């Protein structure tokens, strides 16, 4: 790995740690709450982030990444907490998956970050480019999580903080 790629993984881990830090004081009950004018809850946000990173790698490489079907059906694009069932991972399980994911991606893909594949519909041709996109995507959802947390804090109908 070259220094640019090492920096990319440092950023991936740093931003993931920031996300996990944001989740530290969120209870299981709060993670399930959908504030007024929101479509999803914190549990959905983090499950979606976990899945999205793998889906983009899968889209690019055409490899089949082992992602449990319950994660695909609960957290894919266009889903909502309404699609949750007894197989959907819990908030705690999702946090643990998120914690491990950057190291798993590093282990599996560090030697092929700049290998070129046919471009995705967004023009990405390397795993490095995909990871840059997913870091941006994670930042968008981190803001949504912060907005939900603010709603929890400000709402009289929210779960007790």
TrEMBL record:
Residues 11-145 form the DinB-like domain. SUPFAM superfamilies: DinB/YfiT-like putative metalloenzymes. InterPro entries: DinB-like, DinB/YfiT-like. Pfam families: DinB_2 (PF12867). Gene3D superfamilies: dinb family like domain (1.20.120.450). It comes from the Bacteria. This is DinB family protein.
